Amino acid sequence: MPGSRRAPLHSQHRSKMAALSSPLRVCRGILKELRAIQGPSYKKSLAYNYVMDQFRKNKVTGERYCRAKQEAHHASHTYLCLLASTRNHLVLHNLYHGKGERSPEEVASLVGLRLPTQPGGKGWEK
Amino acid sequence: MLIGKYACIANSCLMRTFQTQTSRSKVCLRNQHYECVARYSAATAERKRFYQDVSISQSEGGLYEINLDQRKLKTPGGKLFTVPNEALAIAVATEWDAQRDTLKFYTMHLTTLCNTALDNPTQRSKEQMITAALKFLETDTICYRVDEPHGLVELQKNEWDPVLQWIEKRYNVTIGSSASILGPEIPEATKDNLRQHLKSYNFWSLTGLEYVITQLKSIVLSLGMIDRHLSVEQAVLLSRLEEEYQIRRWGNVEWAHDYDMYELRARTAAGALFVHLTSESSTVKHKLLQD
């Protein structure tokens, strides 16, 4: 059975978490997402300046366990998750759900017909 | 009229239209039904991106506003869009900036949350929200266990029990788990403890918290994530535990499973960020370096 050969859910997830938990990786991830959003001029955006500011401010701390640093790290991780998942969601949406209904003109052209036109309008249109 | 307008929009898949100061000409129709139909079709018609730059500005009172190309952003209710701190304003501005040719409101979660908090279309008070949240405890995902299949029972025990133990220790409450259809019995002391804790949040944070609870279908997971015990990905994984189990057993369907997972992650992350940004204020204290 394929399920039994894989590692248990929790430990696999834990290893994924440990890999992402360094602030440098989170920072790089956020910058990658911002670059995907903004294009080449992402360094001029508000978000870039704010994020870099926050990372620099929280880097230097005297205490070994700094609560503000933990909070900032969790917040940066959350923001990275937000940016990445909205982008992935949009990609999947466009890939699978994007089409929508065809307009009457397109439906008519499927069978090679055109819609009739009435010069004065039909009376109830604005 | 305002409630009717919101009820109609709520019925039609929660698509909202955003008005700017140069508002579109209002269609004057006789019937409220026709007005609802016109607004629905206006809401679902695709709006193109009509602005080049997004910037933020600070008004008097310390509130921040979003400017789309010189015009100030407004909520669907017509109020001026203001947020209490800069970080939230920047995040909302980034959402607006991320829109390409058309505006896709279903990707702008933070904007939607701010609009809900500002307009409060269903006129909810803090007490109503706290009561609703506590009522959710009786049907919390974490407390509902299955009897079989055995793998899922083990998984639920290994993954959900630690979170239950954490919240019981953190808030000094008792929340059991049960495999019966009725669910666990929640003692009144638990509810009182949690009510006291929830009262300490302000209205905006409670709006965000209610949103997160509705997405994750669990108060325990929401509080665990807000208290930074769990990350967003962990909380989403725990919320979808049975689905993940079935995926590993039967395979993954990208257009359903991954789609749902990313949407849940995006909404939960937005809610968590919203709660964090509206419930804390940070100050920087510079210590002098001693030689």
Automatic annotation (TrEMBL), chain A:
Superkingdom, natural source: Eukaryota
In UniProt terms, what function does this protein have?
Plays a role in the assembly/stability of the mitochondrial membrane ATP synthase (F(1)F(0) ATP synthase or Complex V).
Name used for this protein in its record: Protein FMC1 homolog
Q: Which family does it belong to?
A: Belongs to the FMC1 family.
The entry's cellular-component GO terms read:
mitochondrion
Name of the gene: fmc1
Automatic annotation (TrEMBL), chain B:
Q: Which organism is it from?
A: Oreochromis aureus
* Family, as annotated: Belongs to the ATP12 family.
Q: Which UniProt keywords apply?
A: Chaperone, Membrane, Mitochondrion, Mitochondrion inner membrane, Transit peptide
Record localization: Mitochondrion inner membrane
Name any GO cellular component annotation. Answer: mitochondrial inner membrane
Looking up Pfam families in the UniProt record yields: ATP12
- What job does the chain carry out? Plays a role in the assembly of the F1 component of the mitochondrial ATP synthase (ATPase).
Specify the domain of life of the species encoding this protein. Eukaryota
Protein name (database record): ATP synthase mitochondrial F1 complex assembly factor 2
What topology in the membrane does the UniProt record assign?
Answer: Peripheral membrane protein
How this chain assembles, per its entry, is: Interacts with ATP5F1B; involved in the assembly of the F1 component of the mitochondrial ATP synthase (ATPase). Interacts with FMC1.
Q: What InterPro entries does UniProt report for this protein, alphabetically?
A: ATP12_ATP_synth-F1-assembly (IPR011419), ATP12_ATP_synth-F1-assembly_N (IPR042272), ATP12_ortho_dom_sf (IPR023335)
Its GO biological process annotations read:
mitochondrial proton-transporting ATP synthase complex assembly
Mind telling me which SUPFAM superfamilies this protein's record contains? ATP12-like
